[in-house]
Amino acid sequence: MSSFTIKVPASTANIGPCFDSAGGALNLYLTLQVSEADNWEFEQRSPLLPADTHYEDNFIYKIAKQTAERHDKQLPACKVIVTSEIPLARGLGSSASAIVAGIELANQACKLSLSPKEKLQYGTEIEGHPDNIAPALLGGIVFSVITSANEIDWIRLADFNLDVIVYIPNFELKTEEARNVLPANYSREQATSASSIGNVMIASLLTGDYVLAGKMMEKDLFHEPFRANLIPNFGRIKKEAKLSGVYGTVISGAGPTMISFAPNGEGQAIAEHMETAFGDYQVKTLEIDRDGLQVIK
Ligand SMILES: Nc1ncnc2c1ncn2[C@@H]1O[C@H](COP(=O)(O)OP(=O)(O)O)[C@@H](O)[C@H]1O
Ligand SMILES: N[C@@H](CCOP(=O)(O)O)C(=O)O
């Protein structure tokens, strides 16, 4: 086996009203440098990664092993050097990036020749929803749906003119915890309103009406009203960002990071203003990654 590098982007899920369905890839990366070895070794070279464990307890190793076993293969021993720019449990898809990296590690090391559809299926089974896995794999903004136990349909949007600003607070919020506050059921009336808002958001995004898209992003009824209390400054960030000229600001994934979509070319100036207003936050201007998962040999 020759050496290779796996690079997986971060992602922002939901984009307001498209709960568990829409996600955009972001240019922060999880990187694995993989080479052949006599024994398994995971070397974590970033302060953003979880504490070191025995390789068998490493999350990425477990995903890789499980993927290999699905195809009746055994993983050959590898040395893996892991680096990451994606903060954990902040709503930037770190777990989806780790899952995609683990699937690709098995794909390369065991020569599984997995298709994008299979990788999306495996990743979604593990994560439970496709909205982070799909953009992490495919890049761009992806709308996806689990149509049956074995089928996920998706459509990828790679053509847009937007700047993206993230506001990352200095505390973690586990996705599981933020899912526990959501209602188990919605009435027909609630579901109709919530999905109508999502429909208008997507149609405006596709036709380039970013003002209307931003308005609809901020009207989500599926998750934001229930999560707002978990996210300090939820209302203040939205209001200040809007006054600074963004189209819309939403919770990134399950939070606690928030994300604004802004006119192309204005992101940096808005980020500088927001950094002054919210000194406790890491404010970053990011780009939508258009490549998704990359394997570099
Ligand atoms: N590179 C990684 N290596 C090992 N575990 C990871 C890695 N990235 C994420 N995880 C696991 O995923 C958890 C965060 O997942 P989650 O709560 O879904 O938040 P998010 O995906 O928004 O960052 C981490 O606490 C850690 O257990
Ligand atoms: N649709 C999910 C997305 C979770 O994203 P994460 O980046 O916070 O893991 C949800 O909203 O629960």
From TrEMBL:
Chief location category: cytoplasm
Molecular function GO terms recorded: ATP binding; homoserine kinase activity
Reactions that this protein is recorded to catalyse: L-homoserine + ATP = O-phospho-L-homoserine + ADP + H(+)
Domain GHMP kinase C-terminal: 201-277
Signal sequence annotation: none
Pathway annotation: Amino-acid biosynthesis; L-threonine biosynthesis; L-threonine from L-aspartate: step 4/5
Places the protein is found: Cytoplasm
UniProt keyword list: Amino-acid biosynthesis, ATP-binding, Cytoplasm, Kinase, Nucleotide-binding, Threonine biosynthesis, Transferase
Gene Ontology CC terms, in alphabetical order: cytoplasm
Listed Gene3D superfamilies: 3.30.230.10, GHMP kinase, C-terminal domain
Domain called GHMP kinase N-terminal: residue spans: 58-140
InterPro entries: GHMP_kinase_C_dom, GHMP_kinase_C_sf, GHMP_kinase_N_dom, GHMP_knse_ATP-bd_CS, Homoserine_kinase, Ribosomal_Su5_D2-typ_SF, Ribsml_uS5_D2-typ_fold_subgr
GO biological process, one term: threonine biosynthetic process
Stored PANTHER family: HOMOSERINE KINASE (PTHR20861:SF1), HOMOSERINE/4-DIPHOSPHOCYTIDYL-2-C-METHYL-D-ERYTHRITOL KINASE (PTHR20861)
HAMAP family per the UniProt record, alphabetical: Homoser_kinase (MF_00384)
Cited function: Catalyzes the ATP-dependent phosphorylation of L-homoserine to L-homoserine phosphate.
UniProt protein name: Homoserine kinase
Species whose genome carries this gene: Virgibacillus indicus
